[in-house]
Amino acid sequence: LHISNYVNPDAVCVSQSWYLASDFQLNIIAPLFLIPLHRRPKIGLLLLGVGIAASVVGATVNAYLRELGSGFMLSEFSASRTSDLSYPMDHKGIHYRLSTFLMGICLGYLVFNVKQNKTTQNVSKRLWQVGWVFCIIILAALVTMTVILVDPDHQYSSWLDPLFVGLSRPLFCLSLSWIILACTLGYGGSVNRFLSWAGFRPLARLTYGVYMIHYFSFAYQLYGMQVPLSFSFIDYTYLLGGDLITSCTLAKVLYLAVEKPCCRLATHLLRGKQKRDSLEETHQMSDFKTTTPKASG
């Protein structure tokens, strides 16, 4: 399971579970960056920068050499690839997803230092506003380019498509990082109030279940069709609503039957261990006080 994105990636029984393998592998290599970042921050930041640059350049060069179009992720059998088995490596391999993971570490390190008062916040309000403008422009550009480049009639561009493949994820991650940083430091405004809405909390508990289940909902719907689907806004809105309700309902069942009981069990086991550790420390302190001779008056 934890190496399925590299070993027989086309034979995974639950195709969307590739993320579990990717997440596991990224967390395994995380200490290579976290330990230097803790002990030698400058060296750690340098390693993070090199890792991000290497991942972005590698993804871009790979897309250029293999002529991967921007829409290669939409189909596992694109004519632009040299073999059908290239898709998992291009989409699921951590060597091309490392950049966003390391950017997340950088963001966490920055937020931690700010909260610990190790980094000053001497940034003018005007600069924060400029940052928001660039953030919105980047997100809007990514959405626009996605619509253009994944169009079936789009003609492959030897420079535009590889750049989009290599830079789209890091730029999207950079924009989200800015939003998180601004909201954390009190410069989020209405965006922070919207994202902090209490109504998102119950939905947040279902997100992973929706991720694991939605593919089956789509597959059951598409494979069961007897006639071609007509393209219209009303039809797709209806299908989207049905898929969303079905996925959320099944995700709720999955959360109550699996995720919540496992979380409760883990909490109970960890709490018991913490109590035992606390009792051992108390006994050790008592023994120390008993064996320590009192000073004579």
Automatic annotation (TrEMBL):
The chain crosses the membrane at residues 44-65, 94-114, 126-149, 169-191, 203-224, 236-258. Residues 287-297 have a biased composition (Polar residues). GO terms for molecular function: acyltransferase activity, transferring groups other than amino-acyl groups. Coiled coil: none annotated. It comes from the Eukaryota. Residues 277-286 have a biased composition (Basic and acidic residues). PANTHER family: O-ACYLTRANSFERASE, O-ACYLTRANSFERASE LIKE PROTEIN. This is Acyltransferase 3 domain-containing protein. It comes from Homalodisca liturata.
